[in-house]
Amino acid sequence: MGRRPPGRSLRNSRADGDVLHTAVEQPPAPLEHAIESRANARWLRLVGVGLIVLYAPTFRWLFTRWTLSVWHNAHGLFVLPLAAWLAAIELKRCRSLPVEGSGWGFLFLAPALALQAVDAGLHTELLSAVSFLVALPGLSLLFLGAPRTRAILFPLLFTWFALPIPLGLTDSLHLVLRQVTAHTVAAALPLIGLPVYLEGTTLQLARGAVEVADACSGFSTLYAALATACLTAYMARTPIRRALPLIAAAPIAIASNVLRVGLLVFLVEWRGASVLHTSLHPLSGVLTFALTLPLIFWLGGDVKPAEPAA
To answer: Which end of the chain is less enclosed by CB atoms within 10 A, N or C?
Structure first.
């Protein structure tokens, strides 16, 4: 029986010791990740409850504005759920990215809280809604980190379409849309044998008059069309399919509103001005959405398939 060489035994012992030492000092990465994820989830739940309490009056005000009528930001009711769905999809795709909070989030949270404090005295609710949207990327940076925040950048920007725009900020645009609609209808109807006299933005007929007011300017349809175009471009497969919805959104929305007003003018000439006080008037507003939004989606083509999560 021969002896084992002492040098080799020492080397093996040192190697075994190094392996053991390394195994003790470096715990498995998945365990650390799981612990950190659970801690982040607890903090996110606490912050989520705090945001609900802080912005509850604002959410009620937004819901009231979204459900006021088809003429006032009706699309806003779907914007936040859509943004949350898109963000969830993107976060599933980037599970392999590190979750490291970034202090840059305070650059968003500080002005957001300042806006909320100002609105607590003014009670506009609009400033509070802006505060909430400004706070979202700050919270994302703090809890998800910069790489994941970049991954959900579009959903975060898309949430801004939920804001109801005050009429005072869009007076000039409303006037332009009213004039375009009124002049186009006044020029088109005589071609089918229906004489119309245009006075300002009021269409005078033999059996009544149709005024193209701010509610009939088509601004709500235009706003929803732009939101839909951005969503479609984001989900499209090719650059051309991304560009087409963005280019065509405004013309399609304006053309749909012209068609709606022309239909109302025809109904007034046929049934009298009383038809404007029936359910056909608001239903004609739904018609503009029914024409505009599917057409924009069609221009975007097939949406890109969801990629498997890493």
So the answer is: N
Q: What pLDDT is stored for residue 304 in this prediction?
A: 56
pLDDT of residue 44: 64
Distance CA 180, CA 127 (A): 32
Q: CB neighbours (10 Å) of residue 73?
A: 23
Tokens linked to 94: 């980037």
Q: Is the dihedral of CA 290, 293, 296, 302 positive or negative?
A: negative
Amino acid making up residue 111: P
Question: Which among 211, 201, 223 is positioned nearest to 289, based on CA atoms?
Answer: 223
pLDDT of residue 276: 80
Q: Which residues contact 46 (CB under 8 A, 6 or more apart)?
A: none
Question: Element (H or E) spanning 205, and its range?
Answer: strand 202-205
CB atoms within 10 A of CB 291: 18
pLDDT of residue 98: 73
Structure tokens at 2: 């021969």
Find the helix packing angle between 126-144 and 29-66, rounded to 10°: 170
Residue 229 structure tokens: 């175009």
List, for the chain, all residue ranges whose pLDDT scores fall below the cut of 70.
1-45, 47-48, 302-310
Q: How many helices, marked H, and strands, marked E, lie in the chain?
A: 11, 3
Spatial distance between the Cα atoms of 285 and 186, rounded to a whole number of angstroms: 19
Which are the contacts of 300, defined by CB distance < 8 A and separation ≥ 6?
A: 232, 233, 235, 236, 241, 242, 244, 245
